[in-house]
């Protein structure tokens, strides 16, 4: 059998299709949101001061579907659609459509937290039904095989956590879309590395495809959403990003079979490291918010104005600079983790990450230093 060539151009074409379609759909979706009243009116905890339409997630979903449709027309990526079994990509598409539908209703009618949680859990269940779930996790010196029930619970918990983390971080113009782009880019790069290490196995194409179309959708949306934003992605968009990140990560690593000699232990550890890095900022923000609110006797979902991006604004950063700083933190951690997983010499990577973190710290502290 002739060895397959890694279809980089096809991934790029799928991502470009998602970007162009998303960019073109934003205009009509914006008019629809204004007409039907899906508008974010300024509240006490908000940073924006003018009414802004939501439903950007509809345009992003359209871009994702177009990117997947393009991939199905391409000779190599078509192999990612294994119709003889439960195709992962189809499961991701169905889960995304379901969750965006919940987000669209929430953006218009402000659904209660329990209803949104039910929608998130159902979308995660759809992923599981199509075979996207964790079956092994790395342990110290070995791997731990998960039973069916344990794998389902872990997959659902991870998906719901990522969906809510991206929802929590969506507080400044362009923030969630930029973090989604960085996260998708790093997960996609890591997934391509795994594909190459495993001999370009077509059955492993889907994680990078999911990441590529997500990155494209974020690229197409950012020009409309960066400060000053003409449209918000809303919960429909932020939850879509979290779902696709969870699907790509689980598909890439959650089903890697453990080797007898433990030689692929790094391949099992690395996805968890990468995942933690790419969502470090939103997950940290989510954790701090839950602790802060429960200590005050409030619901973990009670709104406030103490998120990380609010704190950056308080110390003197502008909206654009605060967003770019969070991009910097996310990119250093995410791509540093990917490099650590794929490059043989860890010392070079750790030095580079260390320098990047120092730059990020100094850039974050500039307003405070000037104030002195």
Task: Write up this protein.
It is a single chain. The chain has one domain (8-280). Helices cover 69% and strands 3% of the residues. It has helices at 8-36, 56-73, 88-109, 113-129, 148-169, 175-197, 206-225, 234-253, 265-278, 280-295, 308-314, 319-342, 346-371, and strands at residues 39-40, 52-53, 136-138, 143-145. α2 (56-73) packs parallel to α8 (234-253). The protein is globular, with a radius of gyration of 20 Å. It starts with 7 loop residues before the first helix and ends with a helix.
What descriptors fit this protein?
mainly alpha, globular, two-stranded antiparallel ribbon, two-stranded antiparallel sheet, about 375 residues, 4 strands
Instruction: Summarize the helix and strand pattern as letters.
Output: HEEHHHEEHHHHHHHHH
The share of residues in extended strands comes to under 5%
Total helix count? 13
- List the domain count as a whole number: 1
What's the end-to-end separation, in Å? 68 Å
Kindly state the percentage of residues in helix.
Answer: 55-70%
The largest sheet is:
2 strands, antiparallel
What sort of overall outline do the alpha carbons produce when their principal axes are compared?
Answer: globular
Low-confidence stretches: 260-264
Structural class: mainly alpha
* Rg of Cα set: 20 Å
Could you report the average pLDDT, rounded to the nearest whole number? 80
């Amino acid at each position: 059998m002739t060895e397959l060539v890694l279809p980089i151009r096809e991934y790029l074409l799928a991502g470009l299709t998602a970007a162009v379609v998303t960019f073109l759909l934003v205009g009509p979706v914006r008019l629809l949101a204004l007409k039907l009243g899906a508008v974010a009116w300024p509240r006490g905890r908000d940073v924006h001061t003018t009414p802004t339409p939501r439903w950007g997630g509809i345009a992003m979903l359209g871009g994702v579907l177009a990117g997947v449709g393009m991939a199905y027309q391409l000779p190599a990526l078509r192999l990612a659609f294994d119709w003889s079994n439960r195709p992962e990509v189809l499961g991701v598409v169905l889960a995304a459509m379901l969750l965006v539908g919940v987000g669209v209703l929430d953006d218009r009618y402000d659904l209660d937290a329990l209803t949104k949680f039910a929608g998130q859990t159902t979308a995660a269940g759809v992923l599981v039904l199509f075979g996207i779930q964790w079956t092994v996790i790395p342990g110290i010196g070995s791997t731990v095989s998960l039973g069916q029930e344990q794998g389902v619970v872990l997959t659902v918990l991870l998906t719901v956590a990522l969906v809510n983390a991206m929802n929590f971080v969506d507080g400044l113009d362009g923030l969630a879309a930029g973090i989604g782009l960085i996260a998708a880019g790093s997960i996609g790069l890591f997934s391509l590395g795994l594909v190459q290490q495993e001999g370009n196995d077509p059955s492993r194409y889907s994680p990078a495809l999911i990441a590529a179309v997500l990155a494209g959708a974020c690229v197409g949306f950012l020009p409309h959403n960066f400060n000053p934003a003409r449209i918000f992605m809303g919960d429909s968009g932020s939850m879509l990003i979290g779902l696709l990140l969870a699907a790509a990560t689980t598909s890439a690593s959650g089903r890697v079979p453990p080797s007898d000699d433990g030689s692929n232990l790094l391949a099992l550890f690395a996805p968890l490291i990468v995942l933690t890095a790419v969502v470090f900022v939103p997950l940290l923000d989510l954790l701090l918010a839950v602790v802060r609110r429960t200590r005050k006797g409030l619901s973990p979902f009670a709104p406030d104005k103490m998120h990380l991006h609010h704190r950056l604004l308080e110390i003197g950063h502008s909206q654009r600079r605060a967003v770019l700083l969070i991009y910097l933190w996310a990119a250093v951690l995410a791509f540093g983790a990917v490099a650590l997983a794929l490059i043989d010499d860890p010392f070079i990577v750790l030095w580079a990450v260390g320098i990047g973190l120092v730059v990020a710290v100094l850039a974050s502290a500039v307003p405070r230093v000037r104030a002195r």
